[in-house]
Amino acid sequence: MQMQMLQSSVSLGLSASPVRVVKCSLVRAPSTTVNDPNSMAAAGPKWAQKTITLPPQRRGCHLITPKIVKEIDQELSDFNCGLAHLFLQHTSASLTINENYDSDVRDDTETFLNRIVPEGTSAPWKHTLEGPDDMPAHIKSSMFGCTLTVPITNGKLNMGTWQGIWLCEHRDYPTARKVVVTLNGI
Amino acid sequence: MQMQMLQSSVSLGLSASPVRVVKCSLVRAPSTTVNDPNSMAAAGPKWAQKTITLPPQRRGCHLITPKIVKEIDQELSDFNCGLAHLFLQHTSASLTINENYDSDVRDDTETFLNRIVPEGTSAPWKHTLEGPDDMPAHIKSSMFGCTLTVPITNGKLNMGTWQGIWLCEHRDYPTARKVVVTLNGI
Amino acid sequence: MQMQMLQSSVSLGLSASPVRVVKCSLVRAPSTTVNDPNSMAAAGPKWAQKTITLPPQRRGCHLITPKIVKEIDQELSDFNCGLAHLFLQHTSASLTINENYDSDVRDDTETFLNRIVPEGTSAPWKHTLEGPDDMPAHIKSSMFGCTLTVPITNGKLNMGTWQGIWLCEHRDYPTARKVVVTLNGI
């Protein structure tokens, strides 16, 4: 069946001017023309999943949207409406969404993380065998999280103008990091 | 096909009394009666996606469940079992799930965020061009995150009794905030 | 239709040796052989949702992967490729993914949370009626979050070697905690 793109204006609350709302109508799958595999295939729900390996990065916050998109661009373009899930398979790094423009934002975020999570001889950790940066890395990983879900609209990740995907590397010695990407939609 | 709602009691661990577990059986789609478009449409997987604009809010944590539900209630009612994904398209505000009852909880959360993230002339940030509240806002956005996924059950968001959706506005000067809502399920 | 498992090696950036990438090809549903309900049922998208009750846990971080997997193992095995969503229906506990091996990591994480979130008579909270541990619990819940999404691959949760699911109990007096688990995929 066809996906209808509707535009209507919806005002909520105090905003002075009407706000344009883009709406993807409720879409059901599959198509009723079940004898046409191409038609049904185009309309039915789709899944794609792959594991991407990001190269080692120095400790700090890194903008990785281009790397991610390059790896999934072909599959992404096949979706009209859906969700892209990213899952970092590590406990000493994290994923977050934040500013894609000024690299000072990434530097300042690293400054914050190091300020707030004790590290070194004065830190109160029991888990010290893997080095002074390891327990702080675990804490930072849970603070920012290791998973993200981004909407897909018209074959693209539908983030705000200034949003980008960051890999935050919390260990001193860089290692490759694996991300399982799962796309789902129609 | 039919979705079966089963109830069984499952005890796990040390709880003294049996605990009721509501279970939605594994449901496959689509229906085998493919010649009946209405039957298939009702049973098949569904997607809906829209961008909601929330009106400007003063700095602080705001309970927005009613606003969100009002915008998606019609589409939501069409789902028996699924997930609702909310994606805030901004890097200086955040979304979280927390108490929906006592507004002091929202005030205290704002107090905590301001206490933990340095702001002003003594703050160690390089990113200062957009004002003293901006870099702290980016940090708070990554701390709480900009995405939420809530289960849908029987046409409703399936949250706990005391849970609500919060928009946390981290900038001093209020601006409208866009949220992409994606519903998926059967 | 069949899901094709392809293996290809993809090098990204500075890694010295080729990295094996496991790729689940873009899969469309449903099957074109619509007259065979068994074939279609096996290939079509599937949903399963259940509410699990975790027994009361003492305050602190707890590895709950075995408990979760035991509850959903049967349904999980039915999925080739998908996502498992966990939603904790509480505002004074949290879910996170972190190390599954050394329990010191869980102890140190609890130490960190208590260090960073003020508690007791010197804490600046207005919300105090439910006890000195309550407002700190709400804050910790938003810091770590109450939802997780984990990829499903070949009938299993596809986490990294050292990753596990934690329930972080933030209240002093243990209570049972409900988690809505939603599985979706093919």
TrEMBL record, chains A, B, C:
Organism expressing this protein natively: Prunus yedoensis var. nudiflora
InterPro entries assigned: UPF0047_YjbQ-like, YjbQ-like_sf
Taxonomy, superkingdom: Eukaryota
Gene3D superfamilies in the cross-refs: YjbQ-like
PANTHER family membership: SECONDARY THIAMINE-PHOSPHATE SYNTHASE ENZYME, UNCHARACTERIZED PROTEIN YJBQ-RELATED
Pfam families according to UniProt: YjbQ (PF01894)
Protein name as annotated: UPF0047 protein C4A8.02c isoform X1
